[in-house]
Write a structure and sequence with these properties.
The protein is α/β, with parallel strands linked by helices and 579 residues long. The chain is built from 17 helices and ten strands. Strand 4 and strand 5 form a beta hairpin.
């Protein structure tokens, strides 16, 4: 979702952080109290200095030393108060930055996990990772530092202006005129910095997306000797990010230079006016020192606010990108009033009725067309056909990763769209085609399908999958950390009434395939099973074989019947067995 034009011209996008700040109102109030006290201590300092100059220096020679000592002690007390209040503000605000960033990162990640595969057809994983890391770090900088620093300097700047109004109204009018000349150009520069900040973050996300894509497919890249080509592609992306970042930095450098020079002019003008007033006898030396400090405080506050404004603009771009993720809505959600399907006795019943479906990225090409299929409880049905025939689509629709454009899908007599997503998917076990493993121990990977499984249940599942001996031979047995990828998880460990096998033996050698087939035959007892396999030898014993081609069912029957018919199945089988 692109940002609105108005949001693109100001830091209003930071308002998206308000829901994450509200739970910590108490700490925000405490930080505000420390901020006000620190600002007040800073504003009292010039008054104490004026008193020391005008009264301490003007005291009788006999009591002057004692008077100066008392005034210096007062100044030191003010400095101690300033230090303590500033430290308190720093701690509380830094805690808020860490906490809010952690909450925001967790919220975005949890929301992304709920998105349907349609979301990832248009959003690269690397871009999501960039938003979770780079963008949240920018937000942390603002919440935990820049925003508080900006408020502190805003309070001190307004306080200094107020004191100038009270003590030197003529000087204050001149200061305000100069401020207008400083702020207006700074806002113009700020808008350009804002646009370039968003562009810079997008280019960084592009390079992250390329890196994530390539690293996830590193064996393929290396098998085609494409390392140099991919490195060059990444270099181009990082160079684009660099050049965009340089333009952003150049614009911000101009903004910083302008603010510093303008503030120096403001301070010198104030000092010049003050010295003229002393020479005329309308100001005392103490009043001049006080005015000079207030002008200095105000000038410093404006300079810091210029820096902070640049940080706010960068964080506004980061917040926009994070809010785009948070406002995205999955087209597949649990119904408001879900219906629970009855508990099956001997496997689930599955029914597809006149289903028509196309993937969002390919609207003109139907993945399934007028697809109807009824699977009885406990039946084993094999789905075969050439690549792109729609076999995997059947599984994705059953798991409700997508919803069909036409037709209905039922599990145990209840439409899948009427069931709660977690309950629906909890009734289905999936053994995927691609090896999947998480960065955890062997026992935690096996327990993934059933988090509450006991160690004994895990061992039984491993023995059933002929993995127990292999795992026990690892350096730390079941507690061995497995790293990333490379081992298949068994979908049968949560004991579902419906089991989906997606090319479950395609990556195995003959001996391993026989072992896994034995394990799968055991897992398939007393449950409904849908099997996808290119190796037709693995589906010959299925109760029924359904042959798909271009999203349509073209043949149905047992192996012998389909071979005798001499159709698509017979042709596929002939090609395989001849080879």
């Amino acid at each position: 979702m692109p940002p609105s034009p108005q949001a693109a011209r100001s830091p209003q996008s930071l308002s998206g952080l308000l829901p994450f700040l509200r739970p910590y109102r108490g700490r925000i109030a405490l930080a505000g109290l420390f901020l006000l006290l620190a600002a007040a201590a800073m504003l009292v300092f010039p008054l104490a200095l004026r008193t020391m100059i005008d009264r301490g220096m003007a005291a009788d020679p006999g009591t002057r030393l004692v008077a100066l000592r008392e005034h210096f002690l007062l100044l030191f007390a003010v400095a101690v108060a300033l230090g303590l209040f500033s430290a308190g503000r720093f701690y509380v605000v830094s805690w808020l930055g860490e906490r809010v960033t952690a909450d925001l990162r967790s919220a975005v990640y949890a929301h992304v996990l709920e998105q349907s595969p349609e979301f990832f057809e248009s959003t690269q994983t690397g871009e999501v990772l960039s938003r979770l890391t780079t963008d949240t770090t920018l937000v942390q900088t603002v919440v935990g530092s820049s925003f508080s620093l900006g408020l502190r300097n805003l309070v001190m700047g307004l306080g200094a202006l107020g004191m100038l109004v009270f003590t030197h109204p003529y000087v204050m009018v001149q200061v305000l005129l100069v401020v207008v000349l400083v702020v207006l150009p700074a806002m113009v520069f700020g808008r350009r910095v804002r646009r370039l900040s968003r562009a810079s973050q997008d280019r960084v996300a592009d390079s992250s997306a390329i890196a994530a894509e390539v690293l996830n497919a590193i064996p393929v890249v290396q098998s085609y000797a494409a390392e140099n080509r991919e490195a060059e592609r990444f270099q181009v992306a990082t160079d684009n990010a660099f050049h965009t970042g340089v333009r952003r930095t150049r614009a911000r450098a101009v903004l910083v230079a302008f603010v510093i020079i303008a503030n120096a002019a403001l301070m010198l003008w104030g000092l010049y006016q003050g010295t003229q007033a002393v020479l005329r006898g309308t100001l005392t030396a103490g009043q001049l020192g006080q005015a000079a400090l207030y002008v200095g405080i105000f000038a410093g506050a404006v300079a810091v606010l210029g820096e902070v404004y640049g940080d706010l603009l960068r964080a506004a771009g980061a917040t926009e990108r994070l809010m785009e993720l948070l406002v995205s809505r999955s087209p597949v959600v649990s119904p408001a009033r879900p219906v629970s399907a009855p508990a099956p006795q001997a496997g689930s019943a599955v029914r597809f009725d006149a289903v028509r479906f196309h993937y969002p990225s390919r609207p003109a090409i139907p993945a399934l067309a007028d697809f109807s299929l009824a699977v009885r409880p406990g039946e084993t049905v094999a789905l075969v056909g050439p690549s792109g025939a729609g076999k995997t689509t059947v599984f994705q629709l059953l798991l409700r990763f997508y919803d069909p454009q036409q037709g209905t899908i039922e599990l145990d007599g209840v439409p899948v769209a009427d069931q709660r997503l977690q309950e629906l998917r909890g009734r289905i076990g999936l053994v995927p085609q691609e090896p999947v493993i998480f960065s955890a121990s062997a026992i935690e990977n096996i327990r993934y399908g059933k988090p509450g499984a006991s160690d004994a249940e895990v061992h039984v599942a491993a023995r059933g999958a002929f993995a127990d001996d292999f795992i026990r031979a690892l350096p730390e047995g079941y507690d061995t950390f497995l790293g990333e990828r490379g081992v298949r998880l068994s979908g049968g460990q949560k004991n579902p009434p419906l089991l989906l096998l997606d090319e479950a033996t395609s990556a195995l050698d003959a001996e391993s395939e026989r072992m896994v087939q034995a394990a799968l035959e055991s897992a398939m007892r007393d449950r409904t099973t849908l099997v996808i396999a290119h190796r037709l030898a693995t589906v010959q014993q299925a109760d029924r074989i359904v042959v798909l081609d271009h999203g349509r069912i073209v043949e149905t029957g047992r192996h012998d019947e389909l071979m005798a018919a001499g159709g698509v199945y017979a042709r596929l089988a002939g090609l395989q067995f001849m080879s």
